[in-house]
Amino acid sequence: MVLRRSSVTTALFYRPRETVLHKLNPLTKLAMILIITAVLFNTDNPIKLAITLTTVLILLHLGKVLRSSLVLMTTLLPMFALLFTVCALSWMYVADKPPTTAITIATLITTRLVILTLSLPILYSTTRLSDIARSLLLLKIPLSAVLPIILAYRFIPVLLRDLATVYESQISRGLSFRTKNPVKIIKNLVPVAIPAVIVATLRAIDLAEVLALRGVALKKVRSRPSITHYDVLLLAVVIAIATIPFTT
Amino acid sequence: MRNSSKELVIEVRDLWFRYSRESPWVLRGIDLELYSGEIVAIVGRNGCGKTTLIKHFNGLLKPCRGIVKVLGMDTRYVSTSELSKYVGIVFQNPIYQFSCSTVFDEVAFALRLRNLPSDVVEKLVNSVLSELGIVHLANRCPYDLSLGEQRRVSIASVLVYRPKVLVLDEPTTGLDYRSKLFLLNVIRRERERGCCIVLVTHDMEFLCELKPDRVVLMDDGKVIYVGDPREVMYSPELLSRCNLVQPQVPALSRGLLSARPLSAKEFLSEFMKMRDVSGTP
Questions:
Q1: CB-count burial class (<10 Å; 0-12, 13-18, 19+) for A222
Q2: For residue range A106-128, what is the model confidence (pLDDT) as tens digits?
């Protein structure tokens, strides 16, 4: 857990590069993700899903963030496996569907979520957080709503670091997770969770005070990122690819 | 062998470590031996690898190259929970470990993990609480205490299972003079018991008062000096290489006294001797 956090943290954040994707307006990238999402939830054809996945992979490759995104997906594999299992079992025993249908539906749901998750780095790995914030403000989302989102996002590595410190403190005192008993594992998670939550709360209180002291939300007018011909071109390409599943 | 009467508790041989393949080496070929009943201070600039080094002592980090042995056990093959029986680490910020609603339960945490009978737990906890002068806090919530009191609770929670090595990471940060003095006495008492104390600190004034047996000076992941604290305190060049400032007593004594006192008490004693010899009233 402790050793893996560095690669996960890296994959979750902006990676400065000189690529076409980096130069795009954040709103263009947001639009691309929305188009991909729309396509994903409007088709259940495996070939069409494969085309969408390929588009996402090409975009990630263009932004030189493909490898880090795949690292993140590897870390999230247990979560997707859990989702698949829960979906399949729900369709089988709650919705009373035959196993083959349940597995097909579970596969479809999981695949959609995998592709959607994989598409998110198109925005967050290639865009500075401040630019995302400015773009959200351009969409007339109020600062009082944008700021908590941005801060929560920025808090992820801090919280991961805190969690790792708490974990190290507790296993240094003899706490062990080397057991196969799930009840014991959950019981042992409590001494890690309590300090982690308290530390996060204390940090949040400190942060709120500091923001207030620095006069956050004093000015309404902010600088905005520009729209270039690259934005128009790449958005057109994505829209063109997105329409393929509906033309065949 | 450095000292045949003392037991070798931690042995570090050619230790190299980095957090990932892409990152630079944090530790570069560290060699170190730690013995029972000694106080060793590890000092150096921020980011020089001090905390990374001590995390190897209980297997929190495993060497990329080289060997770390705790009481003869290679840390690569022993779990941290097993090593925690012998090596206790008190981290810089006490609140990262508080998971119980009372100080008593917090101190008893490690003992309960070891499945000790409740009467033994109660006896050991009360004993360590009284040693650290925090019996009156036993029913308080650890988060409601002052930093000095929290620090005592975190030390008590480690000392309660009597580790052979006690590692203190920046123990004086944010402490007032009285709390530092108390900490000094706790460290000395533990040394008397035969515990090896490893101290990671930037507080050179505190080190002068403590007078550790050895100082390990680190720079850029390497050990650049191991030995007598007086050598370090009276070498401004060595200190400045590690972004450290010469403490007040050595700075004052340099050029004034032939002896090399570390604490104010030693300085006063040497100064009185010099005055008696020279006959100055």
A1: exposed
A2: 999 999 999 999 999 998 889 88
Residues in chain A whose Cβ is within 8 Å of chain B: 2-3, 6-7, 162, 165-166, 168-176, 178, 190-192, 194-195, 198-199, 202
Rounded Cα–Cα distance for residues B138 and A107 (Å) = 54
Cβ–Cβ of B97/A6 closer than 8 Å? no
Non-local CB neighbours of A181 within 8 Å, separated by 6+ positions? none
Contact between chains at A195 and B95 (C-beta distance less than 8 A): yes
Count of domains for chain A: 1
Instruction: Please state at what angle helix A46-62 crosses helix A66-89, rounded to 10 degrees.
Output: 150
DSSP state of B94: G
Task: Tell me if A173 and B60 make a contact (CB, 8 A cut-off).
Answer: no
State the residue range of the domain holding A18. Answer: 5-247
Ordered mean pLDDT values, 10 residues apiece, chain B (281 residues): 73 93 90 95 92 93 94 93 92 90 93 91 94 93 91 93 93 88 92 94 89 93 92 88 87 80 85 74 55
B96 touches chain A (CB under 8 A): yes
Facing residue for A172 by CB, picked from B80, B100, B143: B80
Residues found in chain B: 281
Contact A202 B97 (CB under 8 A): no
DSSP A193-224: HHHHHHHHHHHHHHHHHHHHHTTTT--S----
Q: Can you give the length of chain A in residues? A: 248
Would you place residue A1 in the very low, low, confident or very high pLDDT band (cuts 50, 70, 90)? very low
Token readout for B256 is 């004034």
Q: Which residue has the tokens 């018991």?
A: B193
Q: What are the distances in angstroms from CA A129 to CA A37, A51, A73? A: 22, 29, 21
Burial zone of A196 (CB within 10 Å; 0-12 exposed, 13-18 middle, 19+ buried)? buried
Neighbours of A6 (CB within 10 A): 17
- From CA B117, how far away is CA B110, in angstroms rounded? 13
Other Cβ atoms within 10 Å of B178 Cβ, number: 9
Q: pTM, whole model, 2 decimals?
A: 0.74
Q: Which of B23, B84, B143 sits opposite A172 (nearest CB)?
A: B84
3-state helix, strand, coil in chain B (%, to 5): 40, 20, 40
Largest CA distance in chain A: 62
ipTM over 0.95: no
